TrEMBL record:
Residues 828-872 form the PKD domain. It is a single-pass type I membrane protein. It comes from Colobus angolensis palliatus. One of its GO terms (biological process) is post-Golgi vesicle-mediated transport. This is PKD domain-containing protein.
Length: 1160
């Protein structure tokens, strides 16, 4: 879960891949870069992977039927059901030949003369290393010293009956998909394609029909082949979406087709596990469609569906067979878990089984379980629904603190999960659950993991087919990886005993626990790469795997080993890697060597790998691309696909093994074999005896007979695992963990009822033992004692301490002990509203409340019953989103004078805030809870001030510049009225106009721009503030004096009064700039005795024809504008300013015209 993602982690049955899973992909290491898989012929072929993080992922549930078999996921899914046979091949780019039995990534194909010899067949029949050369000559040092224990190889060449088909004229195509439906059908469909690696698309395709041995003439370019899992006669071909979007549908096993146009592009298909005509289609634009007519008509189900997060209903858990489970994204990026009927998925008919959001890409529907993930407080939380009941939080040991989880298996009503805990990096811990999937206990620590080609997590765990409860795992101990085996679902683990002798019969000195056998458990999407392990349901005792003997697992010196007694003992069978297939229900083993060279031989064993015979299956060496076994029960026909050379066409070699048998097996050909673990016959609570063919009898088995008999065993302590909250100690006892309180009762336990009191043990799920210690170890029902409430907590559903104004917040009441059915609950939300509940069960879904105001609210909850009471408090911060921050401060100030800066917010009430201030040359910020600060500047120049406001998860900031000087002049400017018609009253416009005004003043007066600062003020009519500043060059010389400022001021006033300052706003719109006073008057000087504003006004009235004028004389060092007007409009980054009428006393300097935009 980290993310509940799909993607390989569980190494399942390789035999299922070869004998039941259907479609395969063969990748050529080194050809397409680093051994990665070949480019998929269709988008749906990409493996589903856990991202993760980190991801709560799964292995492709049985209820999931994606027809996306390239590359194959590790478990057989409904897209290719058991019994189907289909293969996808990739020819090596550049050489033309497909390296099917691909070498490990470190090996390379021969070139030059060796390559030509290989293609001619020279040296192609080399025997297993260290045994015999062709011609029967024995290699030096390979004398069999113990014939009874050595693996025997019969070197005379025998011939298998085979038939070769050539796809004549198709040598250019480099990809192929092969379908063999079997079930008394001889039809083999082959779709070959030319994939252009430069264009990244398919440019040609051909469809071949084996029964006619002819090419089907289709002009349409085909990209993919689908086969109905419940009716193999129904076939669907998908056209290349870059050319057209169509489906070709056949109901007669490919004999005829009907073409249907599509109005969307299919990315993947999901067939229904029971209904052959029901299909879900996922489009490239993340829409999900359904069809009830095998693709002939489609209906939109839902938009915004998460890739690979849609599932059919699971029979036995869902009542409606047409119910669809899906994860859909909202417009704001959240995800919901939704269910609806395939033909009626309107908004009114959709259900949301899990309330609220879930983590993206986290929905899993698998068997009877549904899993989702929800992250809160920085930690992932995992929830499970069993048989579609209400979701419950999955309970791991208290301090597991998982950061990643993968659902490995949900077989037999139990969840097997791999969890990466807080202190792990490349390993996972295995946990196993109770039936409901809620309570998990540890099965094995530090299991090795790796990353697949697509980044998906691969867990080194393998479930042995045919034997319930048997697993192999690679565990990391002190930086060494060792292989362990369990027969009881992880209750007990042990190392593998190495073989007594090697391939030649020489003794192997390997003493447990210092030395043992180690196996590669990675089941690759390409079964012809290293790390092969195979088992089969119909051959429960036989396991074939590659590995090594020593102190740890190694990637070098790899050999092949076989066990014919379910992992108790092992034999070495080859010193090089081979692919091993099961034929005749496991009665025959077929081994094909891993090599990049062409081959014409394979090895057969009729006695579970004790001896091997060499057979040729073709007269000309073949570069093998893939192998398929016959569908059905007998599995005695194998089809090999490949090329004779890099210039040849595709070749199909059908090998018939029936000719090597002269009769069918009868009862006398079998012997009983009892499953055991190191002599212990009781496995998972039962003794099981199977029928096995006698090794000396060479007869054809046919149908699988299964176990002869099964007898339950008497229960012992070994049949019980530790219950949740308990840990197994060195003496074998299960004792409570330090964090677990055994006396805590179930929340549902009420006075007069009963509960199950754990003994510290629980029976292993699916264990069939009876009697014995069963009664002693089984949880006992006890009457619920009355208890006073204890351990009361109140939290939000998402674990946060914040809520948003006007939105629902869900509060959860949690109680460790107490009678939940007889406990009165009172909740006070702290905003004048309180509620009461008769019992705790009424609050299981949470208590919802909406706060209408922002602030910090004290939420209190009190529970009472007849035996006592308890209370809890939650301080909840209710906020609303902060939209805008504006920093208000003066444009200009004098040195060593106090300056006030204020952060103005919109909206003004947003809750608890933190302010971070940066100003001057300070390297450390000032952090306050108030929105205003005061400070001084001790040097002249331009200074930047920044305020950052933190509101919840949001941080907003504003930055302003302030000029600091000992003295300056200022004057208010006005403009011709036409400027107001073009004033949108926004900060950007004011900044631009300020630059234009400054440029006009410089051009009209010739005053250097360094002396002028213009700030356009917000509001109408449009006004501005003009500042005349003393300029000092960088060397500190030529600083302007007060007299210089006086001269500049006089010049500016003169030009303004003469209408010499103007600018063109747009063609035909000319704006005049004026001094905002009644008559012409110069800017007056400042005397050094004043620190504030001083103004002298002389009024002269002339009665005969004289004009009236007003002279303003400013005797100050700084003239600061008035405070912001309270009428400032919300959302504006500047505040409306007012001009002062009177001089400001020195003791109370005025605050600046904050919010005006200026140019300097």
């Amino acid at each position: 879960m980290g993310k509940v993602g799909a993607g390989g982690g569980f190494q399942a049955r390789l035999s299922a891949l070869l004998a039941g899973a259907g479609l395969l992909v063969l990748c050529v290491p080194g050809v397409f870069g680093g051994g990665s898989c070949c480019p998929p012929p269709h988008p749906s072929s990409a493996p589903r992977s856990a991202s993760t993080p980190r991801g709560f992922s799964h292995q492709g549930p049985p209820g999931r039927a994606p027809a996306t078999p390239l590359p194959l996921v590790v478990r057989p899914l409904f897209s290719v059901a058991p019994g189907d046979r289909a293969l996808s091949l990739e020819r090596a780019r550049g050489t033309g030949a497909s390296v099917a039995v691909a070498a490990r990534s470190g090996r390379r194909r021969r070139s030059g003369v060796d390559q030509e010899k290989a293609e001619r067949g020279e040296g192609a029949s080399r025997s297993p290393r260290g045994v015999l050369r062709d011609g029967g000559q024995q290699e030096p040092g390979t004398r069999e010293r113990d014939p009874d224990k050595a693996t025997r190889f019969r070197m005379e060449e025998l011939r298998l009956t085979s038939t070769t088909f050539a796809l004549t004229g198709d040598s250019a195509h480099n990809q192929a998909m092969v379908h063999w439906s079997g079930h008394n059908s001889s039809v083999i469909l082959i779709l070959t394609k030319l994939y252009d690696y430069n264009l990244g698309s398919i440019t040609e395709s051909s469809l071949w029909y084996e029964k006619l041995n002819d090419k089907v003439g289709l002009k349409t370019i085909l990209s993919y082949l689908y086969v109905c899992p419940t009716n193999k006669r129904k076939i669907m071909l998908l056209t290349d979406p870059e050319i057209e979007s169509s489906l070709l549908i056949s109901s007669d096993e490919g004999a005829t087709y009907q073409k249907y146009r599509l109005n969307f592009y299919i990315q993947s298909l999901l067939f229904h596990p029971k209904q052959e005509d029901w299909i879900l289609a996922y489009s490239q634009d993340q829409k999900l469609y359904s069809s009830a007519e095998f693709g002939r008509r489609w209906q939109l189900i839902q938009e915004g569906v998460v890739p690979n997060r849609f599932y059919w209903s699971v029979m036995g858990s869902n009542k409606e067979p047409d119910l669809v489970h899906l994860e859909a994204r909202t417009v704001d990026g959240h995800s919901h878990y939704l269910t609806c009927r395939m033909q009626n998925c309107t908004e009114a008919n959709r259900n949301q089984p899990f309330p609220g959001y879930i983590d993206p890409d986290s929905l899993i529907v698998q068997d009877h379980y549904v899993f989702v993930q929800l992250t809160s407080g920085g930690r992932p939380h995992y929830y499970v629904s069993y048989r579609r009941n209400a979701f419950a939080q999955m309970k791991l040991p208290k301090y597991a603190l998982p950061k990643d989880m993968h659902v490995i298996s949900t077989d037999e009503n139990q969840v097997f999960a791999a969890v990466q805990e807080w202190n792990q990096n490349d390993t996972y811990n295995l946990y196993i659950s109770d039936t409901r999937g809620v309570y998990f206990t540890l099965a094995l620590e530090n299991v090795q993991s790796s990353r697949g080609p697509e980044g998906n997590v691969m867990i080194d765990l393998y479930e042995v087919a045919g034997i319930k409860g048997m697993f192999l795992a690679n565990k990391k101990i002190d930086n060494q990886v060792k292989t362990f085996i369990t027969y009881n679902k992880g209750r007990d683990w042990r190392l593998l005993q190495a073989p007594d002798t090697d391939l030649r019969g020489d003794p192997v000195h390997c003493l447990l626990p210092y030395c043992s056998l180690h196996l590669h458990l990675k089941v690759s999407e390409n079964p012809y790469t290293s790390g092969i392990i195979a088992s089969k349901d119909t051959a429960p005792s036989i396991i074939v795997a590659s590995g090594n003997i020593g102190s740890e697992l190694s990637d070098t010196d790899i050999s092949m080993f076989v066990s014919s007694d379910a992992g108790n003992t092992w034999r070495q069978i080859f010193e090089e890697e081979h692919s091993v297939l099961y034929l005749d229900q496991g009665g025959v083993l077929v081994a094909m060597k891993h090599t990049s060279l062409p081959i014409r031989h394979l090895w057969l064993s009729f006695d579970e790998g004790r001896s091997w015979s060499k057979y040729s299956f073709t007269s000309i060496p073949l570069f093998v691309d893939g192998v398929l076994g016959e569908p059905g029960e007998e599995t005695l026909i194998m089809t090999v696909f490949g090329h004779f050379s890099h210039r040849s066409e595709w070749q199909l070699v059908k090998v018939d093994y029936k000719s090597i048998f002269d009769r069918r097996c009868v009862e006398e050909d079998y012997r009983p074999w009892q499953l055991h673990s190191q002599g212990e016959a009781c496995i998972m609570g039962a003794k099981r005896i199977y029928k096995k063919r006698k090794s000396e009898r060479k007869c054809m088995q046919g149908k699988y007979a299964g176990a002869m008999e099964s007898e339950p065993c008497v229960c012992t302590e070994a049949d019980f695992d530790c219950d949740y909250g308990y840990e197994r100690h060195s003496n074998g006892q299960c004792l409570p963990a330090f964090w677990f309180n055994p006396s805590s009762l179930s929340k549902d336990c009420s006075l007069g009822q009963s509960y199950l009191n754990s003994t510290g043990y629980r029976k292993v799920v699916s264990n069939n033992c009876t009697d014995g210690v069963r009664e002693q170890y089984t949880a006992k029902p006890q009457k619920c004692p009355g208890k006073a409430p204890r351990g009361l907590r109140i939290v939000t559903a998402d674990g946060k301490l914040t809520a948003e104004q006007g939105h629902n917040v869900t509060l959860m009441v949690q109680l460790e002990e107490g009678d939940v059915q007889r406990t009165l609950i009172q909740v006070d939300f702290g905003d004048g509203i309180a509620v009461s509940y008769a019992n705790l069960s009424s609050t299981e879904d949470g208590i919802k409340h909406v706060y209408q105001n922002v602030g910090i609210f004290r939420v209190t909850v009190q529970v009472d019953n007849s035996l006592g009471s308890d209370s809890a408090v939650l301080y909840l911060h209710v906020t609303c989103p902060l939209e805008h921050v504006h920093l208000s401060l003066p444009f200009v100030t004098t040195k060593n004078k106090e300056v006030n800066a204020t952060a103005v917010l919109w909206p003004s009430q947003v809750g608890t805030l933190t302010y971070v201030w940066w100003y001057g040359n300070n390297t450390e910020p000032l952090i306050t809870l108030e929105g205003s600060i005061s400070f001084r500047f001790t040097s002249e120049g331009m200074n930047t001030i920044t305020v950052q406001v933190s509101a919840g998860n949001a941080i907003l900031q504003d930055t302003k510049t302030i000029a600091v000087y000992e003295e300056f002049r200022s004057l208010r400017l006005s403009f011709s009225p036409n400027l107001d018609d073009y004033n949108p009253d926004i900060p950007e416009w004011r900044r631009d106009i300020g630059r234009v005004i400054k440029k006009s003043l410089v051009e009209a007066t010739g005053v250097p721009g360094q002396h002028i600062l213009v700030a356009v003020l917000p509001g109408l009519p449009t006004t501005a503030e003009l500042f005349v500043l003393p300029y000092q060059d960088p060397a500190g010389e030529n600083k302007r004096s007060a007299d210089d400022l006086e001269q500049i001021s006089e010049l500016l006033i003169h030009k303004l009064n003469q209408n010499s300052v103007h600018f063109e706003l747009k063609p035909g719109v000319r704006v005049l700039v004026h001094a905002a006073h009644l008559t012409a008057a110069p800017l007056v000087d400042l005397t050094p005795t004043h620190s504030g504003s001083a103004m002298l006004m002389l009024l002269s009235v002339v009665f005969v024809g004289l004009a009236v004028f007003v002279i303003y004389k400013f005797k100050r060092r700084v003239a600061l504008p008035s405070p912001p007007s309270p009428s400032a409009q919300p959302g504006d980054s500047s505040l409306r300013l007012q001009r002062a009428r009177h001089a400001t006393p020195p003791s109370t300097p005025k605050r600046g015209s904050a919010g005006a935009q200026y140019a300097i």
